[in-house]
Amino acid sequence: MKKTVYVAAAALAVLTLSACGNKTCNNGKCGRQGDRKELYTGVLPAADTDGIRYTLSLDYDDDHNFTDGDYDLIETYIASDSTSFTGYRDLKSFKSEGDFTVSDNAGKKVLRLVQDVRDSQPGSTSTPIYFLVDSDSTLVMVNADLELPTRPGDYTLRLAK
Fold this sequence. Notes:
Helix content is about 10%, strand content about 50%. It has about 160 residues and is mainly beta. The chain has one domain: Lipocalin (Beta Barrel).
């Protein structure tokens, strides 16, 4: 009986160690082999405030060659504030969650976010959001026709390091 318990415990230890040793790092983020997570941030222009700070987390699925997954997005409306350390103060934030896809459109790599209304706060952007994958570390917000917004400004989110 003791021998059976010892063999079972040893087998469990080997399985646990082999599972823990199956970790890799992608884009500086560590996790199980095949995991790929990215975090992008930036302040984009807004019509009625000094800007909107976007914090976009992408969690890629490894079973489709990293072309889709889940996202979390926090949109924080900000206003200038000379007394704040950052020069801005937060007015209000909205969190949305959903699915994303990365596709090729006429030679351009396009990231499309589609909100899951059940997992998102009222007031968050409910229509699909599009970004051009400008480089390995930047996303540029575009409209549904993949054109830059007509309002002047920088529409770039950068990979957080």
